């Protein structure tokens, strides 16, 4: 738990965000309340409202933070397949952000910071698609790539592909799936 003195040092906003991530990871976004987060941060129940206004503002801040982290992860990838791997890795490393980011009904979807962070992450995916050759419809290819990465990440987080994966590394398995989608072939050594 964060102490009251932490608030006086000016990091209440991050303390509340961190506490919110813990709650979401354990219980989901529906369990989130500003009053509970204030208690966890060791501050008055009104203090989080100063930074976030309300629960929607807090969730919007988490989604904005998540899109920024995702954009950073995607920017470091050399190609579309690796952008997909980074997307999956992001979901595994930041499951609470991932849960919130793609639920627009929880967010202020017109928030300028959220829109900028989403655009930055989207640009990272579009860059990967733009590098593909002989793609007749880049927009459809982008949606296909995003669907594959997002779907696989969701299945992974909900433990729905545990049996299919067995002992295989999820990132390597994703590389195989991406190869099937974009080349129609398994990578060398796969499926033999």
What does this structure look like?
The protein is mainly alpha-helical and 192 residues long. The protein folds into two domains: 4-52, Orthogonal Bundle (Arc Repressor Mutant, subunit A), CATH 1.10.10; 56-183, Tetracycline Repressor, domain 2, CATH 1.10.357. It is 70% helix and 0% strand. It is built from eleven helices and no strands. The protein has helices at residues 4-8, 12-27, 34-41, 47-52, 55-75, 80-93, 95-101, 112-130, 138-157, 162-165, 170-183. Helix 5 runs antiparallel to helix 6 (80-93) and helix 6 crosses helix 7 (95-101).
- Helix-strand string: HHHHHHHHHHH
CATH topology of the largest domain: Tetracycline Repressor, domain 2
**Number of beta strands:** 0
The helical percent reads 55-70%
Percentage of residues in strands: under 5%
User: CATH first level of the largest domain: which class?
Assistant: Mainly Alpha
Q: Which CATH-level-2 architecture of the largest domain?
A: Orthogonal Bundle
Average the pLDDT over all residues and give the rounded result.
88
Uncertain stretches of 5 or more adjacent residues:
1-9
Number of domains: 2
Query: Helical stretch count?
Result: 11
Describe what is shown at a glance.
This protein is mainly α.
List keywords for this structure.
0% strand; Arc Repressor Mutant, subunit A; Tetracycline Repressor, domain 2; mainly alpha
SSE topology:
Layout: H1 4-8, H2 12-27, H3 34-41, H4 47-52, H5 55-75, H6 80-93, H7 95-101, H8 112-130, H9 138-157, H10 162-165, H11 170-183
């Amino acid at each position: 738990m964060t102490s009251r003195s932490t608030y006086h040092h000016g990091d209440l906003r991050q303390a509340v965000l961190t506490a919110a991530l813990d709650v979401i990871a354990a219980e989901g976004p529906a369990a989130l309340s500003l009053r509970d987060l204030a208690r966890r941060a060791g501050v008055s129940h009104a203090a989080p409202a100063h930074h976030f206004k309300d629960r929607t503002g807090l969730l919007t801040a988490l989604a904005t933070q998540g899109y920024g982290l995702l954009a950073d992860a995607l920017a470091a990838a050399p190609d579309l397949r690796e952008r997909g791997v980074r997307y999956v890795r992001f979901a595994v490393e930041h499951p609470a952000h991932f849960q919130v980011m793609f639920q627009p009904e929880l967010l202020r979807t017109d928030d300028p910071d959220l829109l900028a962070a989403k655009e930055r992450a989207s640009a990272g995916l579009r860059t990967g698609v733009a590098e593909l050759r002989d793609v007749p419809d880049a927009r459809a290819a982008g949606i296909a790539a995003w669907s594959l990465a997002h779907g696989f990440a969701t299945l992974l987080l909900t433990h729905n592909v545990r049996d299919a994966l067995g002992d295989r590394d999820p990132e390597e398995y994703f590389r195989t799936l991406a190869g099937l989608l974009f080349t129609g072939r398994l990578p060398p050594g796969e499926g033999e």
